[in-house]
Specification:
4 helices; 30% strand
Amino acid sequence: MSFNPFPIGTQLHVETCFGDELTGEVLTYEHSVKMLILRCHSKDGKGKTCHNQCIVNLNYCKDLNIIQEATKAVTTVDKVNESPARLNLSRLDERLQQSVAQRESLLRSSNAHATPRGRQLFQMLAKHFGHSELSWQKEKIVVLQHLTIKPPYRICDITSSQKSPKLLKYVQRLLEKFDENAATGDKGQ
């Protein structure tokens, strides 16, 4: 029998290098790939307590604390006799798609050439137009392939490649609102 550093039933608190914090009970641990499955408590929209099963790659963990050791050693026979919990695959797929979309959105909005104001403006515009309708050209923001906003990202820095006065007025109003919110310190445009 090999040594298992995380026996089933052990309570752990894990912090990933992505900033996620998970607390839960060990369901299983696979030493060869350093993967851990935790049963984490959560609440559904109706206030009922339910459990999420989280897969944790220990290669991407920043911190791991044992909260409580397992009270009873679970043998392989006990494990075989238990029926495994059913996974909601559609929910897992939905969460994966959501996570991928968030990370893609973050990658699209970052630009090494742009100022912090430019990145904030890009994120605000993405809320109105969607990330697919915005792009970067070095430090310039391109909206719907028709408008370009150059640094320092003021109303007078908007140029239009085509005649689209409605779009121009709309982006100008958004930029005015952005400036007002920046002046008051409100980041929730």
